[in-house]
Amino acid sequence: MDGFDAVLKAAQRGDEWAVAVLYRDVRPRLARFLEVREPKAAEDLEGEVWLAVAQGLARFSGGEESFRAWVFSIARRRMADFRRTAVRRATFPAPTEELDRPGAPGPEAIVLEELSADAAAEFVIATLPADQAEVVLLRVLGGLGVNEVAEILDKRPGTVRVLQHRALRRLHAALVGTGVTR
Predict the structure, then answer these.
(1) Candidate CATH numbers 2.40.30.20, 3.90.1150.10, 2.40.50.320, 1.10.1740.10; the one for domain 1-93
(2) What are the tens digits of pLDDT across the range 155-169?
(3) Which DSSP symbol is given to 17?
(4) Residue 141's pLDDT is what?
(5) What are the φ and ψ backbone dihedral angles of 100, each rounded to 5 degrees?
(6) Residues whose CB is less than 8 angstroms from the CB of residue 180 and which lie 6 or more positions away in sequence, other chains included
(7) Which terminal CB of the chain, N or C, has fewer other CB atoms within 10 Å?
(8) Is residue 142 a contact partner of residue 27, using CB atoms and an 8 Å limit?
């Protein structure tokens, strides 16, 4: 039994240390993915995702990549639910960072802290068609393999590879056009 299998079994038994290991492994990628795809509700969505993971963990079976793919599948479903609800309500919650709180770091500090990753993700979203951007974000931010992304997006692995290839070519052309690369 490899390391991930042992951690998964312990987490399914309810061992807190094992749940913490799984959380620490996936959380940064999941948080960044949600912040990029749904910045106004990322924290709430992340909480819902982890609640669903906790509820379904005992039934999960698979390896490390399958686990990450499962978590990101849950995240995509929660985003879709959020978007449907938001359209019906026609409101969007304001993130805590945008509220004017005395003593809180200013927006400049928050932006400077997260600028490079957020700017890159925003560039990807602004430059690419939605399907290509989603493939790149799931592959890069999610750290998922082609097969996992294909399963999440309900596409064939070959289609995911083609979308990724086209996306990278388009990003390269955009970067060369702005003088960022040689």
Answers:
(1) 1.10.1740.10
(2) 999 999 999 999 888
(3) H
(4) 79
(5) -85, 105
(6) none
(7) C
(8) no
